Amino acid sequence: MAEEKARLVDGFTTLKAAQRAVQHDRSSGKTSAEPSVSNKKNVPSVASHIGHTVMPTKHDVVCYECTYQFQFAGRVDQIHCPKCKVELDMKDYTIDGPWCESIRTGGNIHIQPSGILKDGALNATDIILEGKVEGGTLFASRWLEIGASVSIDEEFFKGRDLRVARGGHVIFKQKACYRNVELYGNLKANLKASGLVHIQAGGLFEGSLSAEHLAVGGGWPYSNA
C-alpha cells in the first residue's frame, strides 16, 4: 500500500485560496457570507478583559472570643473564627446619641460628635471616638482613634494601636503601652511603643518616649529610638 505524503499548507497559500474563492463567487453572482460590521462589534474581545480584574479586599480580624488573628476577603455580616469556630458579628456600628448597651464586632465602631457612651462595653477592630464617654469601656483590637475636642479618662479605653486625630489633645497620667502610634494632634505621656511612633506634620509629643521606630513628618523611621 502506497504511503500518502502529508502536505503542509501555510497561511499564505490559505489566504490566496480564499481570495480566489471570493473572486469566483463574485463572478458567478454569489454573495459572500462575511459578517457585517455591526455583528463584528458585538463579538467580545478576550484582550479587553485583561487588566480589569479586581481582587477582593482583605480584612484583618482579631476574634473577640479567643483573640485569634486571621484574614478574610470581601465583605460579610457574619463569619466563623477559624480557631474557636464562634460566629463573629462583622457589621460596622455608628453611635450618634446616648448609648448604654454593649457591642462586640469584628467590624468598626464610630462614635460621632453627637454620640455619648453612658454604659456598656464596646469591642471592635477599629474604634473612632469623636463624642463623649461618661461610662462604659472601649477596646479596639487594632486602631483606637481619638478625635478633636474629646475628653476621656484613660481607664475607659484600650487599644493595640493609637491614633490622635488632628486637633486632638490627649494626656496619659499613667504609663501608656501601645504597638504603633500616629500623632496628627497632641499627646502628652510616658509612652512605650513596640512598633512605630509616627509624629505627622502638625503633631506634637510631650513626655518620655521609648519606641522601636520613630518617624517625624514624612521622613524615614529611625530604629531603636
The average pLDDT score comes to 79
Computed Rg = 32 Å
Shape: globular
- Quickly give the structural class: mainly beta
Keywords:
three-stranded parallel beta sheet, disordered N terminus, mainly beta, 225 residues, 13-stranded mixed beta sheet, 2 helices
Q: Describe it for me?
A:
With 225 residues, the chain is mainly beta. The protein has a domain at 91-223. It is 10% helix and 42% strand. Strands 5, 7, 8, 10, 11, 13, 14, 15, 16, 17, 18, 19 and 20 form a 13-stranded mixed beta sheet that branches. A three-stranded parallel beta sheet has the order 6-9-12, with no helix packed on it. Strands 1-2 form a two-stranded antiparallel sheet. The longest helix is centred in the N-terminal third of the chain and has 18 residues, at 11-28. The termini are far apart.
